[in-house]
Every structure is written in C-alpha cells, then in structure tokens.
Design brief:
heterodimer, A: 273 residues, mainly beta, four-stranded mixed beta sheet, elongated, B: 298 residues, alpha+beta, 15-stranded mixed beta sheet, 17 strands
Amino acid sequence: MIILKPKVEFKVPVEAECISPDVFSGKSVEELKSLELLWGNKRKRLADVFNIEQASEGAEEIVITGDVSAVKHIGAGMSKGKLVLEGNAGMHLGREMKGGEIIVHGSTEDWLGAEMKGGLITVKGNARNLVGSGYRGSKVGMKGGTIVIEGDAGREVGELMRRGAIVIKGKLGTLAGALMTGGSIVCFGDIGEKAGAGMDRGTIIAFNLPKLLPTFRYSCTYKQTFIRAFLLRLKKYGLPIKKEHIEGFYDKYNGDVAALGKGEILVWKGGAT
Amino acid sequence: MQINGVEIEDTFAEAFDMVAARLLVTAKNKKWALHAANITTGFATSVIACGAEAGIENLVKAGETPDGRPGANILVLAMSEKTLEDQLMRRVGQCIMTCPTTACFNNLEGDKEINIGGKLRFFGDGYQIAKRIDSRRFWRIPVMEGEFLVEEKFKVRKAVGGGNFLILGRDADCVLEAAEKAVEAIKEIKDVITPFPGGVVRSGSKVGSKYKFLRASTNTAYCPTLRSVVESKIPQDVNSVLEIVINGLDEESVKKATKVGIKEACSVDGIKLITAGNYGGKLGKHLVYLHKLFEGNR
C-alpha cells in the first residue's frame, strides 16, 4: 500500500493522471517519485507535490490523505486495485475507469466517473455535477460499473449514460439522466427538474415523486421483479433500502417521448396501489 | 451382499454423459414457483422421446434468491448443448414466461453458456429492456401481467444421466412404498434429480425391439408377467419391479443418491432384490457398481 500526503498547498489546479493503481503497480517508491504531473502549466515530479510512503507491500492500493480537491484526473482509466481518498477529491476522479475501486471519504468535484466503463466508486460526502456523464462532444457517457454517492449530487448526473448504475442517497440536481440511452439511476432523496430529458432508454428510480416533464407518460402501477433483485443487490452498499421499497408498488412513466421514448422513470408508491 | 436381508446384486448401473443447466424459478409465492417448476419439468422423463430430462432439485427460500422471493431449482439435462438450448428456449418460453409472477435466473457455475433470455427478449417486440446487475445481464420482457424477468445467459456443464437401480419385491404395493422412500431420501442429495413421475419408472426399457421402427421397448427380462415366456431375471418370489433413474451434475452425486436410495428401499418389508440396469459397459462411461457403494460402510 502506498500513502500519498500532499506536502504543498495547491495554488493552481494539478493534473495527476499518474495517481492510479495501474501506473503505480510494480513500481518502487523511487520510481513513483519521478512520475510526472502537471502543476498548472508546469511539469513536476510526484515527489515535488506528495510525500510518498510505502506502508505495506504492493502498490495497487493507494491512500491519499488530506484534501486533493484541486487535483484532477486521479484514477483516470484505472482497471484494478484500490484508491482511497481520505479527504475531498478533484474533478474527473475515476474518469474512464474500467475496474477496481475508489472510495472517497470527503466530497468530489465535477465529472466524477465520467465515461466510466467498470468498477466501483463510493463517495461518502457529496458529488458535484456531471457524475458518470459523457464529455462534451461524446455520444456516450458511463458504460458500466457502479457509483454510490452517500450525500447529494449536482446537475446532469448520468447524462448520456448507457450502462451501469448511479445511486444517490441524497438529492439530485436538475437534468438527471438527460439523454440517457441505458443504465439505471437510483435516487433516495428529491430529484431536480427535467429528469430524463431527452432520454431514449434507461431507468430512473425515484423514491420521491419528481416534477416530471410533460413528455413522460404514466403507464401503470406495478410491482417490479427487476427492482426487487436490483435493490437487494444494492443493499450491500449500506443504502437506506427498506422492505417497502423492495416489495412496494412503482408508478411507471415512459419517456422521453420527445426522443425515442423507451426510457422510464419508476416512482415508488408504497405498499398499495 | 445384503442390506436388511435384501440381496444387492453384484452388478453396476451404466450412466452416460449429458449436459445440464440449472434454472432458478422464483415467483410471488411457493405455489406459483411450483406451478412453473412442475410444468417446466413436465414431459421431461427421458431423452428417448422428450428431448430433455428435467426435475425439481429443491425448493429455495425467499431469502436465498436474487429477487427475495421463494423459488425452485430445476435441473434440465440433454444429450448436447444444442438440444439443451432448444429445450430451454421452449420450456422457459412456454412454461415459465407464461406463468404469472415468475422470474427465471441461471443458478449454475460453468465454463460454457447458452443464450436464453437474449433470444426470448424478442417476444417483447422491441419494448424489452436490458438490465445489468453486477456482471449478470437480464431482460425485462413486457407481458400482460406486468414484466417477465429472465437472465440472458445460462451456464451449462457436463453432467451424468442414466444412473439407476431396480427394486424387486413381493408385490406392487411394497415395491412402490420402497421406491417412494428411496426418492424421498434422494431429494436430500444435492445436484441430482429423479426425472420420472414421482421419481419412479415402472416401464423400464431395453434397447431395440422386434419391431424395426422402434429403438426401445419394454424391459422384458424384468416384466413379471413374462417370467415364464422370456429369459427372465426375476426371482420366483418377486411379482413387481420399479426403477429409480438418477441424473446428476457429476458421477459422485449420482453415486451418493444411488446409495441412499438403495439403503432406504431396503428398509421396506417385502423387498427381495436390488439390481441395476446396464448395457455391458458399452453405452456409458460412468459405471456405478452397487457393491462398491457400500464398501467401508458395513
């Protein structure tokens, strides 16, 4: 296990794609020290910015102590190992991640898990905007994996999402699941306006009735076998899933009929129709 | 060799390779899970004419299924992967999808897999929805009742079919009682099924027939009514014979089931002889020697 501790104050944004279990794997501390990152527009060595300590054998588990909310692209493209951030994290954390696990004990900035393909990200605090989304110009956002946010999340969460799951214990901002083509977004708190705008396919599961766009149409109220299996599986993340959520009825709204219209917003209705 | 005074013939059962899948069918309650399971495993006694051999392996408690509802494990065996896929398509499509409240999950580990939900999804006429839970992919197919949830791929693995033993006794009543007890005991063994009605076969067959168009015909050597007219294998004091056929995921499970079945059958008064069906070792590579099953135990 490698422990990274910031040793300077981040006065400018830092881009540190090198902080990834894939890059660290098989390297000695000496080799890690010379990895390059961008300090503003200047190239620096990892050792110029972080104290690097080998806490135990192996380098596929990385622990970052302190606040690194100015450090972008940590864990970008990672496919294995574990990354633990004890404080807040910067933008693009876990971008295009393929596997492994990221745990953030603080909160994260924008673009968490953007265009993610696999693995698991857990955020104990809040996440800002565009979680699991596709970058501007991309046709597809998140394509796999799971993101669990124990706090709130900002706007455009899951935009252009195609596969995978994003679960938010708290509130969601506007335009959640906009332009989705698949995958699932689950929100236990309130969902902001315009959820699912332009979605072709995909599922938004809401436990509080959101203000729906007029292009979502009520179809029926029913018990959902998939939701049962899905929520039972999500229980392992310590989410507030109750028996009534698993066994209850859901209102199904199909939409967005302004797009392909094969998406759905499932709103938990409780134990009776 | 004798168990409880019942003679165990020094012979072997000849079992052969098959391929198997295990389906976990869940439903609103045990009643509907069993409706689906029973009909899925119906007309699946022998590959001679049914295409597949199937049976309910065990019931599964609600807390142990992926959707938290009660279910039943079903083993379906066939002679090839292609046949198995065809049979599963028919049985899942016609017997499970049609049954109210059910869902169907793969419940087997294996290297190979066959696509079932991925083909059944077309029934959804374009409105089917794919969903993933971890690495498993499911299809939600809209149906009149609501939705049918089915796993896309089902694992298949090599299995063993045709394990068997014959119970010979004084009369039909005591032989049936022994067979019932044997089947109940076999139900406790994991990874096996007894695919015939109630787990019991009354019309065991031999290979071939006097009629050229028939590839199997009644097992004349064990028909009590023919004792005086054919080369019979039935002792004088025996008037009825029933067979237990056992299919399993591996030879070891079939052996275990055979052993407990025989032991239980021998506890019934009137049972005279236990033997097994074989083809001289020419048909299958799994030979279950009856005496060897009890070596070291007695």
